[in-house]
Task: inverse folding
């Protein structure tokens, strides 16, 4: 039955998803072309245009999250919920399928965005995830071949995946929780109230994540201060000193930071997902 | 049917429900036998929709007071219950063909060919959007879809609200024509006079309590009263 | 509704009477096949259970008989139909007299009116 529900959801969303993805692909290609023209003929105006275009292309990612999370809301919490929640499946299946579909679509959109940006002009490093990755890790990957490079790349990709998943689940979490709070404390059920509660929750979440990310960055800065102070004598160096002062240990540092992102974003995503699931299973009343 | 006795398809034991501090259902017990048409009557706010939502699983039943075919409400019972809500459950931009696809995919017991035949019989085009149709037509479509399932228990919440008498008669006709033989039907409505001929048992709800529960034919036999008379007596 | 049934008398009895009169008046001829319970129920706009009960009652009286797979048929026994006809006539006459009595018209006067 769950597979059938999945089939239904795919059937229902495919047109929209396809539309947004192709919008992103086209815009990314255009951005790439504008950016390479800007570079070749050194046109600052064209560079600015390319930045705006790339932001527009990136909006597609936000759009997908909003549309998919909006679907989740309208299918379960509006009149259609009467139909959906009496289907012979568990309430949690609706959540699982929507989250799966939403996150996969987001991954695809990110991949489209970054490859499109990068594939037009491989020399251009300013645009897109691909460019960023290339700029920071391009040299690194050529210098440290083998397991070290592999482990780092995998960890960084996983970290990005965790951040994206977290980002999507936050939408679902905020929608469900604000809807739950509104109906639980019998506030007049209005979309506006849900919207305001949603925005508030979303901002609280953003602030929390921002604080945690900042903390990670602080640690990272601390570990990088060998560039400022130079190397200590090798005989009394600890493991932390090894990380701090040894350029050879750079990849370990990257793995650790990626790991931190995975843990922080992953755990919050799981907590939010479970909260939504238990609301759907044990609290949801339409 | 089990042996000679009618088996029970739905059983409610001491079912209660509260919205915050307000009691909506207060210790309700009743059962529905296989093959019976049961009418659920009562003024607005008497708990009819709450009771139905409990049975179809839209409200939580922590104490498992409701048993359908012997099982507590869950995805197994949802597979044998065909439910029509008190308002339209489809968005206006949905096409009728989408609804048919939806039912066909999600319910194994849905007879699409039959549903299409009945829809065509009512002169309803498949490629029309729900939003453009009259309330009566929408109600007809919803009833046709719900009745085209070979379910064990049909639950119709206010199928006649806001539709004209002719559409009402058509809806009743569709119900009678399509109800599967061994199925039971729970019908909640204000329209007591129009429906009392098709009802076996009547349940009156008042402020969340059952105040009247009888076989309609027995009542007619015993006291020569119509269901409407009984209703007036209870609620006046 | 379609069959104009009263809601203060048992529906199944009214259906029995209605089909009886259809048979007596010749709408259904001896040996004719009756519509299925569901068809009849829809026509009368009553619950199929009630219609089933009425059909069983008609069988018990002997006005219709059922063949297992083919459905129900009107009896070919003319005597049986005549008997029902007389019964109905008697019932109608009694009803007439009862109503006359309610109006304060005695038996003889009622007879004279006829």
Result:
């Amino acid at each position: 039955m769950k597979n059938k529900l999945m089939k239904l959801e795919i059937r229902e969303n495919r047109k929209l998803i396809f539309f947004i993805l192709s919008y992103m692909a086209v815009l990314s290609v255009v951005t790439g072309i504008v950016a390479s023209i800007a570079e070749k003929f050194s046109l600052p105006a064209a560079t600015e245009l390319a930045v705006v275009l790339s932001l527009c292309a990136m909006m597609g990612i936000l759009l997908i999250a909003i549309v998919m999370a909006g679907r989740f809301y309208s299918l379960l919490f509006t009149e259609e919920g009467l139909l959906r929640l009496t289907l012979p499946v568990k309430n949690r299946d609706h959540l699982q399928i929507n989250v799966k579909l939403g996150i996969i679509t987001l991954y695809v959109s990110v991949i489209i965005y970054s490859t499109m940006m990068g594939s037009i002009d491989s020399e251009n490093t300013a645009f897109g995830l691909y460019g960023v990755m290339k700029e920071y890790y391009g040299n690194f990957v050529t210098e440290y071949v083998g397991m070290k490079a592999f482990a780092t790349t995998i960890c960084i990709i996983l970290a990005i995946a965790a951040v994206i998943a977290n980002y999507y689940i936050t939408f679902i979490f905020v929608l469900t929780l604000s809807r739950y709070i509104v109906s639980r404390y019998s506030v007049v059920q209005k979309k506006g109230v849900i919207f305001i509660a949603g925005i508030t929750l979303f901002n609280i979440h953003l602030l929390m994540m921002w604080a945690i990310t900042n903390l990670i960055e602080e640690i990272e800065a601390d570990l990088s201060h060998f560039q400022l102070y130079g190397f200590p004598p090798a005989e009394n160096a600890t493991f932390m000193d090894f990380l701090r002062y040894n350029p050879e240990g750079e990849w370990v540092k990257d793995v650790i930071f990626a790991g931190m992102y995975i843990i922080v974003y992953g755990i919050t995503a799981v907590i939010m997902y479970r909260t939504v699931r238990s609301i759907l299973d044990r609290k949801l009343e339409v | 049917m089990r042996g000679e006795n009618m088996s029970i398809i739905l059983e409610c034991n001491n079912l209660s429900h509260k919205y915050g501090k307000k009691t909506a259902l207060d210790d309700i017990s009743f059962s529905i036998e296989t093959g019976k048409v049961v009418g659920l009557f009562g003024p607005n706010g008497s708990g009819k929709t709450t009771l139905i939502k409990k049975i179809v699983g839209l409200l939580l039943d922590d104490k498992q007071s409701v048993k359908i075919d012997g099982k507590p409400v869950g995805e197994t019972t949802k597979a044998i219950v065909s439910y029509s809500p008190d308002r339209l459950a489809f968005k206006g931009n949905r096409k009728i063909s989408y609804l048919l696809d939806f039912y066909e995919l999600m319910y194994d017991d849905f007879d699409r060919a039959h549903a299409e035949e009945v829809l065509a019989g009512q002169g309803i085009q498949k490629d029309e959007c729900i939003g453009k149709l009259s309330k009566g037509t929408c109600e007809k479509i919803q009833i046709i879809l719900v009745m085209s399932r070979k379910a064990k228990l049909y639950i119709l919440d206010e199928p006649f609200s806001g539709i004209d008498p002719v559409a009402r008669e058509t809806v009743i006709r569709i119900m009678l024509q399509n109800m599967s033989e061994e199925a039971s039907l729970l019908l909640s409505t204000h329209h007591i006079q129009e429906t009392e001929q098709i009802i076996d048992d009547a349940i009156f709800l008042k402020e969340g309590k059952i105040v009247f529960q009888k076989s309609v034919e027995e009542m007619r036999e015993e006291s020569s009263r119509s269901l409407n008379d009984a209703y007036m007596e209870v609620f006046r | 509704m379609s069959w104009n049934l009263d809601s203060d008398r048992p529906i199944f009895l009214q259906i029995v009477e209605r089909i009886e009169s259809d048979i007596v008046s010749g709408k259904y001829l001896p040996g004719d096949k009756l519509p299925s319970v569901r068809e009849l129920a829809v026509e009368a706009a009553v619950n199929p259970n009630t219609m089933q009960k009425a059909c069983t009652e008609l069988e018990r009286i002997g006005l219709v008989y059922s063949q297992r797979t083919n459905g129900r048929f009107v009896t070919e026994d003319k005597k049986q139909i005549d008997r029902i006809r007389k019964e109905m006539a008697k019932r109608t006459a009694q009803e007439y007299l009862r109503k006359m009595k309610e109006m304060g018209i005695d038996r003889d006067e009622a007879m004279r009116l006829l």
Observations:
- Chain C has one domain: 11-113.
- The longest strand of chain C covers residues 64-67.
- Chains C and A do not touch (no CB pair under 8 Å).
